[in-house]
Amino acid sequence: MIEDARQAVKELDREGIFSYCISLDPKADEYVSGIFGRQFTVIDNIQRLPEKLPELFVALTK
Questions:
Q1: 41 close to 21: Cβ distance less than 8 angstroms
Q2: d(Cα 15, Cα 39) in Å, to the nearest integer?
Q3: Which letter does DSSP use for residue 5 in this model?
C-alpha cells in the first residue's frame, strides 16, 4: 500500500502537481516519509490543527 501511494506521489510530481501530506496520525512518522519524502507534517494533537494550518499555509505558499 505504501509503495502504491509513493508511486502516485511520484506521478503527480512528474505532472507538475505538488503534493504535501498533513497527517493527524501520531504514528505517521513510521511511514509517511516513505511516501512523501520530506513533504509532510504530522500534527499529533487535533487541538493544535487550527493553530498549525495557517503556519503551514504561509510556509507552503512562500
A1: yes
A2: 17
A3: H
Q: Are strands 21-23 and 40-42 parallel, antiparallel or unpaired?
A: parallel
Burial 16-52 (b: 16+ CB within 10 A, else e): eeeeebebeeeebeeebeebbeeebbebeeeeeeeee
Cell, residue 37: 519524502
Domain edges within the chain = 2-60
> How many Å is the Cα radius of gyration of the chain?
12
14-50 residue pLDDT tens: 999 999 999 999 999 999 999 999 999 999 899 999 9
pTM for the model: 0.84
Say how far apart CA 52 and CA 43 lie, in whole Å.
Answer: 8
- CA 50 – CA 43 distance, rounded (Å): 10
